[in-house]
From TrEMBL:
Signal listed as a keyword: no
Lineage top rank: taxon: Eukaryota
Keywords in alphabetical order: Membrane, Transmembrane, Transmembrane helix
Cellular component, GO annotation: GPI-anchor transamidase complex
Annotated spans, Disordered: 406-429
Organism annotation: Penicillium argentinense
Lineage: Eukaryota, Fungi, Dikarya, Ascomycota, Pezizomycotina
Membrane-crossing residue ranges in chain numbering: 16-39, 376-396, 442-463, 475-494, 515-547
GO BP annotations, alphabetical order: attachment of GPI anchor to protein
Cited InterPro entries: Gaa1 (IPR007246)
Protein name: Uncharacterized protein
């Protein structure tokens, strides 16, 4: 009865129910959320790290990288140093050392001399008017005990993430390549990648490895299997080091599997006796303050979402990667770092499956202490929940106050206890209450305004990602002005109408705020599961929005408080926050926004892969060129694209077909859908040529290399199936001609043909009279052609079946 009486009293106090109580609950959510985060470094809320994947066996093998290998290291270093010095003297660049073609060629020759299969890749990116170009060099050690289905990557960029020359890192990687080649214990291929820098080179290589590279990036002539892990080597100074700094933060807050980090710490500290640090905490005493500071530094990097090293490019492809950075001055030399890397590779070599047992969402506060997602997530959820509470309260308030005067004096228990009410009076009061609950809400204007303002946010997003970096500072101040003027204009328009529209009623004010807070709360709750730090940071910055309301009262007081609130809200707006942080840290706005635009244009995988499609979909020729990029996305389901990205790719194809049909190019686009398939089996790469069949030919006839379209595209060694098309149209004949023929490819193709011929009888041999090879027509005799594979002496032609 007491609870029922309390609920009845709340209904009779709308001011407390709809105004005071939501504010109290929202404030408590914020306070508890912040307090929850501050309690995480305590021993009761965090736990020690451990290895979940038993197959890793960190530090259980002896590392032999020592002795004579140090002489090899010194020889390689001296050769590369002399080539770099010659380039500096030739180009007259003072103390700045640039990577010369001679040094790159030397790396290429060293890898070849060590017995690795070596290839190069040129790339070019343009962002904010700045062109980033270079050439990657990589070599592959094929596993003597493996089948080339899995690989480990060792990366050594010429320039570190801090733009320092990484000479000893490159030299150490070359020495390890020569050393690893002599071992027969590897069950996984090992790829040694040398890039010009730590930002663009690795991104271009990993995009091309998964066939998601833009047109300005060359495809890879050599590939291996699925990448199980990556280790980046940075050694930018000449003296010995004391400790090992492990960098693990990825793009957009992505993190590697915790087992990889724990393996590196266990090997460095337990086996090699090298201390391990993280988040630039060089002196960590494991106190509460040190743990909290380490955690906050990690949250800041995760929330900002920028790449902290070459390892960050691997994260979006679900490839666990870390960067090893020697720090300090001590007694550890390059051989100690080499043994550490050798032991890490030996642990990754033991894996039977991809790392999956440990955590992908965590906060590290020491090299041996962490907090998992189940422990830290409630803090961000509480921050996001305060917006949802206020949104629901405002929604209920708009329905109640539409008939508040009729429903407010409902408290009849105290005044009429001695006078029983008649049945008609009870029915009248119930009708009034129900009428208030079901009051009509004017939702058209609030929904339009909230949706329109959110869509308006696409304008600065597009502008800052497409203008030159010289205009970033000016554009920022322009948007600061717009950010100040636009709310004032909208407030004046909504309040007074400015003679254009009718002023809105208080209910619409509450609905606008309710929709905005509800959308903010839902977005932050979803974001918290993906990037906890970013959700928490945005939630704290937006927390004042929950308590800002429409003021009533005397005009002077109302105007004064409104002006103060307007100033405070502008100080917390994104442009002002960016300017304030830049002023405090001494970093220019131009450099910050240039980095942000670079991240959008280069580090965003799906955007870079779909960029040619979105740019080339409005005219006839671009339509024909846009299809292959969307088709390529459908070919890599096993390489990391999730169902949402695949669905987006299919939608792009449908839009392209609709655009082509309006321009009478439907059949040509269907041809391209059938032909543009990447031939990756046995190292063969090619491009197709289509010949239309005559209308009287029936669908499904197997003559001159016809093929039936299948639904699910899958590429295996030596075989390829096609993408599902519209089967009611005339069946295209698709043949592929080689464009990039590497040495030994013809011999490999001959083996495939022989294998096909051994499995088919003479009656199954299909003849073909014409074959398009390198744009020319050659006569091919019957009998030279096996079903599904066309061969012509001296040249080859791959047909799709």
């Amino acid at each position: 009865m007491a609870l029922k009486s309390a609920i009845r009293n709340l209904r009779n106090k709308p001011q407390f129910l709809f105004v005071c109580l939501p504010n109290i609950l929202s404030f408590l959510c914020i306070v508890v959320g912040v307090a929850w985060l501050l309690l995480l470094p305590l021993d009761d809320n965090s736990r020690r790290t451990y290895i979940s994947e038993n197959a890793l066996l960190p530090g259980q093998v002896h590392a032999y990288f020592t002795g004579s290998e140090q002489n090899i290291f010194r020889g390689y270093k001296q050769e590369l140093q002399s080539l770099l010095n010659e380039g500096r003297e030739t180009e007259s660049q003072g103390d700045e050392v640039e990577v010369t073609p001679a040094a790159s060629n030397k790396v290429h020759s060293i890898l070849q001399a060590a017995g690795l299969k070596v290839a190069t890749q040129k790339y070019e990116y343009t962002s904010s008017g700045v062109t980033h170009q270079g050439e990657n060099i990589y070599g592959i050690i094929h596993a003597p005990r493996g089948d080339a289905t899995e690989a480990i990557v060792l990366v050594a960029a010429w320039k570190t993430a801090d733009d320092e020359l990484n000479l000893k890192g490159v030299t150490l990687a070359l020495t390890l390549a020569r050393y690893f080649k002599r071992w027969s214990l590897w069950s996984k291929d090992i790829i040694f990648l040398f890039t010009p820098d730590s930002k663009t080179g690795t991104q271009a290589w990993i995009d091309a490895y998964h066939d998601l590279h833009p047109e300005s990036v060359q495809p890879l002539p050599l590939k291996s299997g699925a990448l199980q892990g990556a280790v980046v080597i940075e050694f930018p100074f000449d003296h010995n080091f004391q400790k090992l700094h492990i960098v693990y933060d990825g793009v957009n807050g992505q993190l590697p599997n915790l087992d990889l980090f724990n393996t590196a710490v266990a090997i460095a500290g337990g086996q090699m006796g090298i201390g391990a640090n993280l988040q630039e905490m060089w002196e960590h005493d494991d106190s509460y303050e040190a743990r909290l500071q380490t955690m906050m530094r990690g949250m800041t990097k995760q929330g900002l979402g920028y790449a902290t090293g070459a390892h960050s490019s691997f994260m979006p492809y679900h490839i666990d990667a870390i960067t090893l950075q020697p720090k300090g001055e001590g007694w550890e030399d390059e051989m100690a770092l080499g043994r550490t890397i050798e032991s890490i590779c030996r642990s990754l070599n033991n894996l039977l499956e991809h790392l999956h047992q440990s955590f992908f969402f965590y906060l590290l506060m020491h090299s041996n202490r962490f907090v998992s997602i189940g422990t830290y997530l409630p803090s961000a959820m509480l921050i996001a929940g305060n917006f949802t509470i206020m949104a629901i309260a405002l929604w209920m308030r708009t329905g109640y106050y539409s008939d508040s005067k009729a429903t407010a004096p409902v408290d009849s228990d105290s005044k009429n206890t001695k006078q029983p009410k008649s049945g008609s009076q009870d029915d009248e009061n119930k009708a009034k209450i129900n009428g208030a609950a079901l009051a009509e809400r004017l939702m058209a204007l609030p929904l339009t305004l909230v949706t329109g303002l959110h869509l308006l946010g696409l304008v600065p997003l597009w502008i800052f990602n497409n203008i030159f970096h010289q205009y970033f500072t000016m554009a920022t101040y322009v948007f600061v002005g717009v950010d100040i003027v636009l709310p004032l204009f909208l407030a004046a328009l909504l309040s007074n109408g400015l003679g254009v529209a009718k002023p809105i009623v208080p209910q619409q004010y509450h609905l606008i705020k309710s929709f905005a807070l509800l959308l903010l709360g839902l977005s932050l709750s979803t974001l918290a599961t993906l990037n906890f730090s970013l959700s928490f940071m945005i939630g704290l910055l937006c927390a004042p929005l929950s308590f800002v309301g429409r003021l009533e009262g005397a005009a002077p007081l109302r105007y004064g408080v409104s002006s103060l609130g307007f100033v405070l809200l502008n100080l917390l707006s994104p442009p002002i926050v960016v300017l304030g942080v830049c002023q405090y840290t001494g970093v220019s706005v131009e450099s910050v926004l240039t980095q942000a635009a670079f991240g959008w244009n280069v580090w965003d995988i799906l955007a870079s892969a779909l960029d040619p499609v979105t740019k080339l979909i409005h005219t006839s020729i671009p339509v024909l060129q846009s299809v292959p990029h969307a088709i390529n996305l459908l070919h890599i389901q096993h390489l990391g694209l999730n169902p949402v990205d695949l669905r987006n790719a299919r939608n792009l194809i449908n839009r392209t077909l609709q655009q082509a049909q309006r321009q009478s190019l439907h059949n040509q686009v269907l041809d391209l859908i059938g032909l543009h398939l990447s031939l990756r089996g046995n190292g063969i790469e090619g491009k197709g040529t289509v010949v239309r069949r005559s209308p009287e030919d029936h669908l499904g006839q197997r003559r001159q290399g016809d093929f039936l379209v299948e639904e699910d595209t899958h590429i295996v060694s030596g075989q390829i199936t096609a993408v599902k098309g519209e089967e009611q149209l005339s069946q295209p004949v698709v043949r592929c001609r080689g464009e990039r023929i590497q040495n030994g490819v013809q011999e490999e193709l001959a083996k495939v043909v022989d294998g096909v011929g051994d499995q088919r009888s003479d009656t199954e041999v299909v003849g073909a009279r014409e074959a398009l090879v390198f744009g020319e027509v050659f006569e091919v005799d019957a009998g030279q052609v096996q079903e599904g594979v066309f061969v012509e002496r001296g040249k080859f032609l791959f047909s799709l079946e």
